[in-house]
Amino acid sequence: MVYQKLFSDAGFGEKKLALLIDPDKQDPKQLILLAKNARRAQVDYLLVGGSLLHRDTFRETVQCLKKETEIPVLLFPGSAWQICPDADALLFLSLISGRNADLLIGQQVQAAPLLHQTSMEVLSTGYMLVDGGAPTTASYISQTAPIPANKPEIAVATALAGKYLGMQLLYLDAGSGAQHPVPAAMIRTVKKEVGLPLLVGGGIRTAEQALQTARAGADIVVIGTVIEQDPEQLSSLTQAVHSALHYAG
Ligand code: 1GP
Predict the structure, then answer these.
(1) Can you tell me the distance from the alpha carbon of 89 to that of 196, in angstroms, rounded to the nearest whole number?
(2) How remote is the CA of residue 101 from the centroid of ligand 1, in Å?
(3) How many structural domains compose the chain?
(4) Which of 70, 215, 218, 240 has CB atoms 3.0–4.6 Å from 200's, for a disulfide?
(5) 20 CA distance to ligand 1 middle (Å)
(6) How far apart are CA 23 and CA 119, in angstroms?
(7) 110 CA to middle of ligand 1, Å?
(8) What are the tens digits of pLDDT across the range 30-67?
């Protein structure tokens, strides 16, 4: 079970790296190379999805990754149609930082009957966009205002609401290609006050940023854009995240 492992790893202070794969940006050959690279670099999770996809390659991307690696594949859907039962689990995202009813509950209602027919694990996830210095595709497409980066108290209030609503995971996301990653102070406060397993991503470009994100309290550090630009960085980013094991504050 994905959640049991994720929860227990987080409890033991083990830090994990998730590689976000945008199905639009990989042709089949590149995807096989990327899967090999991820295996070699000891990536812990593969995330597949996006807030805006231009090509209909979602399902074949998931199937290719399942064929080429043993790494758990988690869906990170931008909408109800981004479902593929071959994945190991789906982050059932509700965009709790926003007030767009469709992304709080609308897409979820559309997806639920389809998910009910699969045996895929469904992980209830409070998804929070954080201002990363400029509008991102996620903030634009979702038509929501991100949480201001200098307001950790808003992030905590939002995360607590997610916890009380029964969510199993939290995801703080500055958005793909963000100018600035989620600030360490916000990650630290949310982790300390809320305690749920925490994914953090958006705008992380260096091993040092990945390390600081993990040390601040992210249980899973999500990396995407930098690997599209420079796949060779994957090992050093993964090592940096893994090295933050047991780091407390
Ligand atoms: C976006 O957190 C992910 O949802 C990854 O962001 O592409 O900036 O690494 P980057």
Answers:
(1) 18
(2) 23
(3) 1
(4) 218
(5) 7
(6) 23
(7) 25
(8) 999 999 999 999 999 999 998 888 888 899 999 999 99
**Measuring from each residue's beta carbon to the nearest atom of ligand 1, which residues come in under 6 Å?**
20, 173, 175-178, 201-204, 222-226
**Both tokens of residue 12?**
């033991």
Contact present, 19 and 47 (Cβ < 8 Å): yes
For atom 1 of ligand 1, the residue with the nearest CA is 176
Say which CATH number the domain at 217 has: 3.20.20.390
Using the mean position of ligand 1's atoms as its centre, give its distance from the Cα of residue 173 in Å. Answer: 7
Q: Which of 48, 91, 176, when mutated, tests ligand 1's pocket best, judged by the most ligand atoms within 8 Å of its CB?
A: 176
Q: Specify which residues 221 forms β-bridges with.
A: 17, 200
Q: pLDDT per residue over 131-144, tens digit each?
A: 999 999 999 999 99
Q: 173 forms bridges with which residues in the sheet? A: 129, 201
What are the tokens at 239? 């090592």
CA angle, residues 174, 128, 197, in degrees to nearest 5: 100
Q: What is the pLDDT of residues 88-112, one digit of tens each?
A: 999 999 999 999 999 999 999 999 9
Residue-number span of the structural domain to which 95 is assigned: 2-248
Q: How far is CA 187 from CA 141, 170, 217, in A?
A: 24, 11, 6
pTM, entire model:
0.97
Nearest atom, ligand 1, residue 227 CA: 9
